[in-house]
Amino acid sequence: MQTWTPDNMYEHVNGEAELLIRYGARGLGFAAYENETGDYLSVDILDLGEPINAYGLYRLYAGCDGEELAIHGTSVLADDYTQYGFYGQYFLRINLDTSDDVNSRALVEDFLIHFTGQIPEPSPLPRTLAVLQQNAGKPCEVNYHPEQIDYDLETGPGYSWVGKNGESYAAIVLDSDESAAQQSEALMQKGIATLVLYRNGVLWNKAYTGEPTDYMKQTIKQLVEQ
User: Fold this and answer.
1) Which of 58, 83, 107, 122 has its CB 3.0 to 4.6 Å from that of 94, i.e. a possible disulfide?
2) How far is the C-alpha of 48 from the C-alpha of 66, rounded, in Å?
3) Contact, 12 vs 2, CB < 8 A?
4) How confident is the model at residue 100, as a pLDDT?
5) Which three-class secondary structure state does DSSP give residue 24?
6) Strand pairing partners for 87?
């Protein structure tokens, strides 16, 4: 396996290194895997430090298109050529270079059995993610941003998603009620008219200018109290 650090990973992922570092990349590995019948794939393996960071990068690349599979504890977006996945703190980009008569899904599954067998049992994802996936229009529409939800608003890390009503929302849960109150005030000063402050959590809708809806109030309460 070839490996790179954050300082030199640009040598392998030119143009992507800055983005990967924002998602917490600690190291990058590149390997080839060959099964017993001689079929092979190559894979980029990124250590992002925390499972939620790996989820965030996976969602960024995978989006909501295509078939999403759960294979040996790994979430994988199936595709004919490039498949994205994550397992614990690891983000995977699997590149397939096979003939039409090769069972690509079986090849990927063989690799994941091999890979996950060498990795300790991963830590669970935050409960806040599960709450938002239940409240979103689609679970795949929940994104995590480890640096900034919105760079213009300087929000810090948090979540964004599309609700069942088609509206876009964002939320942060901070370490204290005081920090949340300060963030709420800062957002209002930057033009966010519709937000809900509940204890140490803030939820807002950047495009909406009416009163906070019951959905917004209930969702931030669930996030804070889960």
Assistant:
1) 83
2) 24
3) yes
4) 60
5) coil
6) 90
Q: Which domains does the chain carry?
A: 2-116 (3.40.1000), 127-225 (no CATH)
Phi-psi region of 50 (alpha: psi -120 to 50; beta: other; left: phi over 0): beta
Please compute, for residue 52, the number of CA atoms within 13 A of its CA located in the half-sphere on the CB side: 15
The pLDDT score that the predictor gives to residue 11 is 93
pLDDT at 209 over 80: no
Distance of CA 92 to the CA centre of its chain: 12
Alpha carbons 115 and 35: distance in angstroms, whole number? 13
Q: How confident is the model at residue 129 (pLDDT cuts 50, 70, 90)?
A: very high
Residue 102's pLDDT is: 64
DSSP 136: B
Q: pTM for the full model? A: 0.93
Closest CA to 163 of 145, 126, 138: 138
Average pLDDT, the chain: 92
Burial 50-68 (b: 16+ CB within 10 A, else e): bbbbbbbbbbeebeeeeeb
Pairing of strands 201-204, 67-71: unpaired
